[in-house]
Design a protein that fits this description.
- By secondary structure, the protein is mainly alpha-helical.
- The chain has one domain.
- It contains ten helices and no strands.
- Helix 1 packs parallel to helix 6, helix 5 runs antiparallel to helix 6 and helix 6 packs antiparallel against helix 7.
- The longest helix is centred in the C-terminal third of the chain and has 33 residues.
Length: 250
């Protein structure tokens, strides 16, 4: 009797996808939360993980319908680039003025919610592409939730201690956006080739890597090229210092 390795291979692929994509979710939770006070940081992590879990369950229920929506990943990737740029701006501004409150709990949760929406969609789509049955999709969903809960706590703690981890997380989000865009561009090129022009070329692999590199550079340098994104002066710097009043001696 031959051993069917297909289910095992599918589960291994799902675990690898989860490890990478849950890391993306955990990175955005860490970026949004790590400069909050300790109590609010825990609240942001709980809210962020909770929303990611709810969204993944919701997307799982309609996953096969989502696979047919053209351009969905590309639009989500554009939103993800915007989130990465905003988080990078706040990171640089907070680093320049460590005593300033970097963000509010509400703003952090808002950013996490939007990023969770985009990346939970990509996570479920990746699981669906690897899984063959609903049972394998459910297993992948459970594994992704476990990894998200673990990774978000670890990454947030590392970001609180080491500043470079936050920049690496921004690069990771930008690269994830580039991968999502490349996926839809590949499908678009293939559609034109099959349905309209057989001489139309495939989307080149190097272009996908170039797009990832461009978006990473774009997000990491946002404070240099975006007007108004440079660190604003602190309240102490903005307030003019009045010269001391000299009293004439009698």
């Amino acid at each position: 009797m031959a051993l069917d390795l297909a289910p095992v291979i599918a589960i291994v692929k799902i675990i690898l996808y989860d490890l990478v994509l849950s890391g993306d979710n955990a990175a955005v939770i860490g970026l949004a939360a790590h400069r909050l006070p300790a109590r609010q940081r825990r609240q942001a992590m709980i809210w962020g993980c909770g929303m990611a879990i709810v969204m993944r369950i919701a997307f799982t229920l309609v996953v096969y319908k989502l696979l047919d929506v053209p351009g969905l990943r590309f639009v989500g990737a554009m939103l993800l680039v915007w989130i990465a740029c905003k988080l990078m701006q706040e990171e640089v501004q907070a680093a320049g003025d460590p005593d300033a409150a970097p963000t509010s709990l509400f703003k952090a949760v808002q950013r996490i919610a939007m990023a969770d929406f985009i990346m939970s969609l990509d996570n479920v789509l990746a699981i669906a592409s690897a899984a063959r049955t609903w049972s394998e999709i459910i297993i992948g969903l459970i594994l992704s939730i476990i990894m998200l809960l673990f990774l978000s706590a670890v990454i947030t703690e590392f970001m609180h201690r080491y500043r470079w981890v936050a920049y690496a997380a921004v690069a990771l989000l930008a690269a994830a956006a580039g991968e999502m865009m490349s996926h839809d561009l590949h499908d678009f090129f293939h559609y034109i080739q099959v349905h309209h022009n057989s001489a139309w070329p495939e989307f080149p692999r190097w272009a996908g890597w170039a797009l990832r590199g461009f978006l990473v550079a774009l997000c990491l340098t946002v404070n240099w090229w975006l007007p108004g994104a440079r660190s604003r002066p602190t309240e102490a710097e903005a307030t003019p210092v009045e010269p001391p009043v000299e009293h004439a001696e009698p």
